[in-house]
């Protein structure tokens, strides 16, 4: 059986392009997508279309806190309602908390960050690092972003998992799994590991979180049967 | 004896019809921007055929991922949003066509390329 490809971040912004966005994702070879949205009705519509065209939809929240306390506060509020929690680390304070908090599934390091990814961040990292492919499409920030990706791969790839997502909000911004994995391949990561970044790793995160969100889950490693 | 370098053929599909010259220029420009003049020359990139909205590109085996990355980082051509989707990579044009027919039977791609196109030569 082939790989099950997952796009770990698709942004739902406009209601009228949801159908096109999802059918394009299916056409590109994805079996599941993780969506972030601002309005619950957008998710409901996506779920409805997903059921019809046989595309699995999971919910995701993107947090962009300014400091440690607001991050912890937002995490307490939303962890139980989303399958995936992602944090965009704009400063070092947030990054140092986000990399080791077990409630967070992935972190995003933006190209305009004002800190260095050094041994301090690398030594404490527990969560996966997500690379949104859409940021490469922007020619102005492309150079900075490629530099950030290079830093991530150099310092963090041996210690943690890397995920590549499209972060598309329009159908034209979606990219196929092979195309997204080529981003890691140009940094000399082998093809199998690069493809894992769009299939195995996100799939494992979702699987674990679905168990955690089920009513039968009691504690880590303990599930109520029957 | 000089060892012959392996080649690969990529079948790509554009979201809109693009003229060969324009595609050639944008691929060259983007590749040079990302990997430099030397990288472009070393990759041996060539557009072999144009079939409706689909194109066959040729490059050396070791640079396939770089070309795929270049194609996927192209977002706009002359102000119009485009997506260049890689449908398949193969060692020969013949096996690439075989792959296309298989994909077409699985409805991964829409019909468009006919058996008779195999013999056509539209080299640039």
Summarize the structure in words:
The complex is a heterodimer of chains A (about 230) and B (about 120). Chain A has about 230 residues and is α/β, with parallel strands linked by helices. Chain A has a single domain, classed as Metal-dependent hydrolases (TIM Barrel, Alpha-Beta Barrel). Chain A is about 40% helix and about 20% strand. Chain A contains ten helices and nine strands. Chain A has helices at about 20-25, 40-55, 70-80, 90-100, 120-125, 135, 140-155, 175-185, 190-195, 200-215; strands at about 5-10, 30-35, 55-65, 85-90, 105-110, 130, 160-165, 215-220, 220-225. In chain A, the strands form two sheets. Chain A has a seven-stranded parallel beta sheet, sandwiched between helices. Chain B is of the alpha+beta class. Chain B has one domain: Ribonuclease P, Pop5 subunit (Alpha-Beta Plaits), CATH 3.30.70. In chain B, about 35% of the residues lie in helices and about 25% in strands. Chain B is built from three helices and six strands. Chain B has helices at about 20-45, 65-70, 95-105; strands at about 5-15, 45-50, 55-60, 75, 80, 85-90. In chain B, the strands form two sheets. Chain B has a four-stranded antiparallel beta sheet, sandwiched between helices. In chain B, strands 4-5 form a two-stranded antiparallel ribbon. In chain B, strand 4 and strand 5 (about 80) form a beta hairpin. In chain B, helix 1 packs antiparallel against helix 2. Chain B is flat and about 45 Å long. The interface of A and B includes residues 136, 172, 175, 182 and 183 of A.
